[in-house]
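ugh ok so i messed up the first submission bc i forgot one of the chains. this is the corrected input, ALL of the components this time, i swear. 552 residues overall. if the numbers dont match what u have on ur side tell me asap before i send this to the collaborators (the ones from the other lab, u know who)
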Amino acid sequence: MSIFQYDFMVRALIGALVTGATAPALGTYLVQRRLALIGDGIGHIALTGVGLGLLTSTSPVLAAVLVSAAGAIAVELVRERGRTSGDIALALLFYGGISGGVFLVGLSSDRTNANLMAYLFGSPLTTSEQDLAVMAVLGAVVLAVTLLLRPWLFAICHDEEYARVSGLPVRALNLLLAVTTAVTVTVAMRAVGLLLVSALMVVPVATAQQVTRGFRATMAVAMAIGLLAAAGGIWAAGTYDTAPGATIVLVAIGSFLVVALGLAAWRTATRARTRRQPATGQPSTGEPPDVVLTRW
Amino acid sequence: MTVRNEGGPVIEAERLVVSYGERPVLHDVDLTVRPAEVVAILGANGSGKSTLVRAVLGLVPLVLGRVRLFGTPLRRFTGWQRVGYVPQRLGAGSGVPATVRELVSSGRLSRRGFLRPPRAADRRAVDAALAAVGLADRAGDPVGTLSGGQQQRTLIARALAGEPELLVLDEPTAGVDAASQEAFAGALRDFVAVGGTVVLVAHELGVLQPLVTRAVVVHQGRIVHDGAVPRPAGHHADPDHDHVHPHAPEEARRWP
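and heres the new structure output, hopefully the right one now
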């Protein structure tokens, strides 16, 4: 682990760990709501913020937070309407966001392709101390919302109508979740980049729910997987000199495949064992198997 | 139970008109429900019976008419902890597993202050609700692995966890196996025994029939009968009549 004797590697690691914890925590709610790819769209919108920040020589991170929060609120309002034409509205927002970003970065004095690539695919090795401080503050906000408000956010994501009849402030909670999604995207921008943010929101959750039984457990395991992927990705990128953001995401996807294959092998093994001893079958629930709904 | 507007109606709906887009679903419907009544809203698929209760709860917008819950106009009503709602079925299904206990606990949020951690009383209420529907031993299981009937019981437990005074159930027994129907009827009997008010939407009453004190029949968006439970007629009265309620998500979306 000698690569971590360099300060920039340590900063890269810390930044990636903040991302690895926050993105899956927020992503659990998005996956629960079947909006797994919304983080990708918000990432597209955030690029316009980055462009604005670079063009006006202010903080690209701050501008990205503001623009992506506005975009996330717009997305939430489209979702609330629930119209099929919402798809078109989302396409306009997302592609408007990314092309606006590329356009504005091109206008700015800092118009190198490397700069654009850093925001799109991450550049954790260039994380400054100031970047880290911003990420830590924003990451703390994301964790506070996703962990402290879990019962309420679970309720609105699981069954919005029921939440409304429970008297919960559904709209306020939805908007809070939207803004928190935007903040998470900005936190993750440095480590994995705007185009790969969604992977860290979704893949660890998808990995976790293969083995978990409950919501809380899924969130905890997803965060653990996110942290492992972040640390493993930074280590591998530093050791083998690969692109760090992409390496983190590949480690996450690799862990998904390992769990999926391991689970399949385990199931095959148990099935073979029960076939040998047919007496110990499934405990009867007294109901026909055809009423069992699909596993989510 | 906190009792405001003591003895006054639990639900007062006057001249409700609801339409989905251009298509009218309820025409000028009145419904009053008094405390401790067990009212069955009956009707064929598409009659508007589900829409009626959903309008009463504010889940579908009214074109005309007004609704009062516990004496308060719906717009200003804040006492949602007094209402327990049991939807037709678990939403479209969620992408992340949730245990039975996690789902039932969300029914307690109406009584739990915002950001307040659960107290012993909250846990006891959730335990009691799980026991009432006979699912205490499945508390740690993912809801998705339960049968349709058990999932329905989970939704009833969720409503009971909030210790409501009024239970509103949308087709609670549709497509539910016999064991779950019995467990469900038992839970409802206990709720009625302590003075609870029930409004249930049903296609047929089955085991719930003895509990029902009044039947309201909705036909093509109007109330055509309000009073005693009508006797089953025609092929429905046939003892061999086999009720089949296939889950039809397409239809459910058109008639939410």
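quick check: The CA atoms of residues 99 and 112 of chain B lie 20 Å apart. that seems consistent at least. Strands of chain B lie at 11-20, 23-33, 38-42, 64-69, 72-73, 83-86, 166-170, 197-202, 214-219, 222-227.
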